[in-house]
Fold this protein.
Amino acid sequence: MLFLAACSGKNIYIDKSKKAVISKNGNPFAKVVIDGAGTEITLIAADNTKNNAVVNFNSHNPGFLVSDGFGLNKNYYLELKPHTRYTVSCYLRDKDQSPTMINFRTDYNTNIVLADEDN
């Protein structure tokens, strides 16, 4: 069963089953910043292909160079932590001044739970 969660008026959404943030219109991300678990990770597009319209959690993202504060790493593996809140800031163009942001948290099994599901 596929669960999609979209934020109204935003150009990104979280696909909970794939554990990924996805561009609604298929445009590639120029930069994605993921803040959570006491760490800030920055993914910078290595190219401008449609493959960069998806950022996977818990797997490798080959179209991006990743900075975790210690240089750039093309083989970085982002792993979600249990019981953690995350903020994802997505820039569709290099010159974007303000990102599109989405927040989520993980449960004890690192499943994604969106803010509107906390009730």
User: Anything to note?
Assistant: The mean pLDDT is 85. The CA atoms of residues 14 and 21 lie 5 Å apart. The chain is about 0% helix and 40% strand.
